[in-house]
Amino acid sequence: MQIRLEPADEYMHPGPEDTFNESMYFNVFDPGSALGAFVRIGNRPNEGHAEVTACVYLPDGRVGFMFSRPTIDNNDGFSAGGAEFRVDTPFEKLDISYRGKLVMLENPLDMAEPREAFTNNPYEVCELQLSVAGNSLPWGGEPVGHKEKPGEEFAKGHYEQLTRSSGSVSIGNESWDVDGQGLRDHSWGPRTWQAPWYYRWLTVNLGDGTGMMLSRIARADSEGIRNGFVWNGTEILPVTDMSMSTQWSDGSNHQQVTADFTFTDSDGTPLQRTLTGSVRNMIPLRNRRDGRVTRIAEGLTDWLVSGPLNTSLEPCGDDDPALGGHGWSEYLDQIIDGEPVGILE
To answer: In what helix (H) or strand (E) does residue 119 lie, and over which residues does it extend?
Structure first.
């Protein structure tokens, strides 16, 4: 399948579809301060609103969170609900900001019942300013001539990139300087959160500057997709196979993640690694549409990989810090009879 990706794709796209969505998402974790954050704007101009999410994982275990659907009438840029994203140099430098209230959650799992969480917890004003630099080449783009099946549309075009972000975050009378790694994505096309049966999205930045993304998208009537990429410090390498398992707590919160994956080295050699993750903090989110309920669990995760992603850099041993890192494990499930449909994976 031919994939097209050009510098112009860093900007906005036309979308006549009723459920057209154009979104950018950024995450970052600073191991020095132990502060993590993600921010997303999803424009839905044909539905008359955007989806804006801001989430900050504080070092003491609290999570500040906000979701809003501000009114928009165009897809001219990413600026809504107190958030703004600006491209300075395609694939090299972007600036992102958020200014607005966050609900402060002593127990982030309270967000499983959002009405009560927003009612029963205090609010603080957040100011987030980050300069985001590409830390890898981008992966993905828009398939040429390919269309998703009706009802399964999730992103006509989609690319991802490992990043390094620097700047500052303040919440109330607390503030932090931020210098950390993360991942960004940009997608456009028809989308509803109810299209996948379930998915697992693992984003990983390791201590030696390498990293990866692993994706498992399940369909209700088929095996679905298992893919991703490895960044070895100089080039993008495709993930050709992946299997995973999850340990759950309270029936629906993923706590431990294991993924066995194979990627092809630059000389064509298949390499196998195991990725293990332990969720540091979790916030469960919910989306409802046409009577269906979708759960999206956002786990800030500590990662460990069984061997180097750059085979020219041999680790000293199992405790080599280059094998460890941070990122997110995002689990989306449709909820049927009160349970996530992907509970067995």
So the answer is: helix 114-120
